[in-house]
Amino acid sequence: MTSQSIASQTAEAFADKVFKAALGTMETFNLYLGDRLGWLDALAEAPATAGELAERTNTQPRYAIEWLEMMAVYGNLIVLDDGAGNRLQRRYALPPGAAEALTGHQSLNYQGALPQMLAAVGGQLDKLLEAYRSGGGVSWADLGDNARDSQAALNRPWFESALAPALAEVPAIDSVLRTSGARMADIGCGAGWSTIALARAYPSATVLGVDVDEPSIQAAKANAEEAGLADRVRFAVAEGRALGELGPFDAAFAFECVHDMPRPVEVLAAFHDAVRPEGLVVIMDEAVADDFTAPGDPVEQAMYGYSTLICLPDGLSSTPSEGTGTVMRQSVLTNYATRAGFASVEVLPIEDFAFFRFYRLWHERPGTTQ
Fold first, then answer.
1. Which residues make Cβ contacts (< 8 Å) with residue 150, sequence separation at least 6?
2. Which long-range contacts (CB under 8 A, 24 or more apart) does 150-154 make?
3. What strand order describes the sheet that includes 78-81?
4. In this structure, is the dihedral angle defined by the CA atoms of residues 139, 240, 175 and 206, taken in order, positive or negative?
């Protein structure tokens, strides 16, 4: 769709667009209910009537009736048996594709935790209104456990199954990480799944995960303990700009977090000083377009949605702030890296890794004698 075609749309067409958006919102919140109540997991295990579903999950049959009918009307469930017109006895099944996308926590198609993120935003709409009117922001801490759990769950399958192969595809990266006794830092580690993935992929390395969010670090420690990697993985509550006090390092990573940082130049400068010149600084962030174009594709639309509701308010909740937002284009990252002392930024040849792009920040331009 072009700007001209948008301009020529009728009021009826725009009204239909808003109505369809509202349908999607209602579906999203009902998926949230199904996830948090355990209904989706229960249906993934076996078909159920409303009564059976309520009994399995210790919930109320009347609500289960309405939710099951709603999910079937939206095309998310299959009706196996109409129950001879008895709503309580009507039997529903979750199709295999839906079960994988909504409950397959290790699948790269998993999206079941996405409604949690939007639920986190829904609970803070009044604070967002105030921030938009008067300045300030809404922090990650304000968004709470729904946001933490959602981001961790959505990124986990990619880190667990795709990160090691992606890094191994780039020999210049893999060779540094395989150096015996390599020390790595993972800044903005969240629940630690990226940190754990690095430690698993490079068994001779030690990895330090750092995040400003105390609950996330506690979760990361528990996850590393359960993975049997507590001997090679450490976690600390600290800002990225404190990296120099924790180094030196052979490699430092920042997975999907630089755009959230209020002072990214300070953090990247800490990377520059804490990582040895021949080492690695790798940034993974959103794979947005190089330039603003309207209308945009679904990736741009999603990233602006995240930005207006989550990332920009989080970034502006601390002052001073660059106010980057989710849509951090390559030119913006290059500007930050240059101001932090790096010579150049390279896009790494890692493709089809969710909605992310990988960058390497060079102390010296490639090929320059150090």
1. 113, 114, 115, 116, 117, 120
2. 150/113, 150/114, 150/115, 150/116, 150/117, 150/120, 151/117, 151/190, 152/190, 152/191, 152/193, 152/216, 152/219, 153/105, 153/110, 153/112, 153/113, 153/116, 154/110, 154/111, 154/113, 154/114, 154/117
3. 48-49, 91-93, 78-81
4. negative
Residues in the chain: 370
**For 1-57, how does the pLDDT look when each residue is reduced to its tens digit (9 = 90+)?**
677 788 888 999 999 999 999 999 999 999 999 999 999 999 999 999 999 999 999
Per-residue tokens: 262: 């209020």
CA-to-CA distance for 251 and 207, rounded, in angstroms? 9
The two three-digit tokens of residue 181, written as one number: 């006794």
Taking CB atoms within 8 Å and a gap of at least 24, the contacts of 35-42 are 35/102, 35/112, 35/113, 35/115, 35/116, 36/116, 39/64, 39/67, 40/94, 40/99, 40/102, 40/103, 40/112, 41/103
What the block records as the tokens of 219 is 């979760």
Can you give the pTM of this predicted structure? 0.93
Which amino acid type is present at position 179? Answer: T
* 286 CB neighbour count, 10 Å cutoff: 23
Cα distance between residue 292 and residue 303, in whole Å: 12
* Both tokens assigned to 97: 């594709």
Round to the nearest angstrom and report the end-to-end CA distance of the chain.
50
Distance of alpha carbon 255 from alpha carbon 258, whole angstroms:
8
Q: Are 359 and 282 in contact (CB under 8 A)?
A: yes
